[in-house]
Each structure stands twice: as structure tokens, then as C-alpha cells.
Design a protein that fits this description.
It is a single chain. Among the domains are: 32 residues; 31 residues. Helices cover 74% and strands 0% of the residues. It is built from three helices and no strands.
């Protein structure tokens, strides 16, 4: 049986009418008591066990001040502690990356690039064939 495209409008109307006559879906009877119990259990937790946004405002402000002070102290101490070692570590890291690129990544990257170009061209050719043959492209008759 084949459908005529003109029948889709009536099919849509009949389907919509049947869907409107379906009964409403009801929630299980245990859902509301379970949600209420979970909410009550969350409220019964001490303030430090609850999410940060539910903490008292004074404790939120205090925690922000403590985090800012810790970050400021770390920021001021970090340059003196790592100034000498950081330059040497950066040189070692750049040397390691350069060796890895020359030996391992560079040759593989060129192979992957060439393979990507070839596969892209093959996909474009396949799509052109599908568009013209299967999807009824322009005819030359």
C-alpha cells in the first residue's frame, strides 16, 4: 500500500484526534511523598553538608574572603618559589616537545593530513553521485 502525499493532511488530522482522546498520564501515588521526604531530609542536613548557595549569607561571604586571601597569598609567594626552576623546566619541556614532534608526531601528522584530504575528496565524489543518481538530480535529456 502506498500513500499519496495528499493523504498526509487527513492522516495527520486523524492521528491528532486519536492522540487528544488518550487519557492523561497520572503520576504514581508514591511520587509526592517521596519528593517531600527527600526535601525534608535535605533541609535536615547541617549547613556545611548542603550546597554552597544554601549556606547562610554570612558564611558565604566568609568563605569568599578565605578563598580570596588564600589565592592572594599563593599568588604573592609563587614567583619567589619558582622563578629559578620555572625557566629551566620551560627549556626542558620545549626540548621534549620538539623531539617528540620531530620523531613521532610530525611524520604521523603529515600522513593523517594526506589521508584526510583523500577521504574528503572521496566523500565529495560519493555525495555528488548520490545526489545525481538517487535523489533525482538534474537530467541531461
Amino acid at each position: 500500500m502506498t500513500l499519496d502525499p495528499r493523504d498526509f493532511g487527513s492522516l495527520e488530522q486523524r492521528l491528532g484526534e486519536r492522540l487528544r482522546h488518550l487519557p492523561d498520564v497520572r503520576a504514581p501515588r508514591r511520587l509526592l511523598p517521596s519528593v517531600m521526604a527527600a526535601t525534608a531530609a535535605a533541609r535536615a542536613l547541617p549547613w556545611h553538608s548542603r550546597p554552597w548557595l544554601t549556606w547562610p549569607v554570612g558564611l558565604q561571604v566568609l568563605s569568599i574572603v578565605i578563598v580570596a586571601a588564600t589565592a592572594t597569598a599563593a599568588w604573592s609567594v609563587w614567583p619567589e618559589a619558582s622563578a629559578i626552576g620555572a625557566v629551566q623546566q620551560a627549556r626542558q619541556a620545549s626540548s621534549a616537545v620538539r623531539v617528540l614532534w620531530d620523531v613521532l608526531i610530525g611524520p604521523i601528522a603529515m600522513f593523517v593530513l594526506a589521508l584526510t584530504v583523500i577521504v574528503s575528496l572521496a566523500c565529495a565524489a560519493a555525495w555528488t553521485a548520490v545526489r545525481h543518481v538517487a535523489l533525482g538530480g538534474a537530467s541531461h535529456r
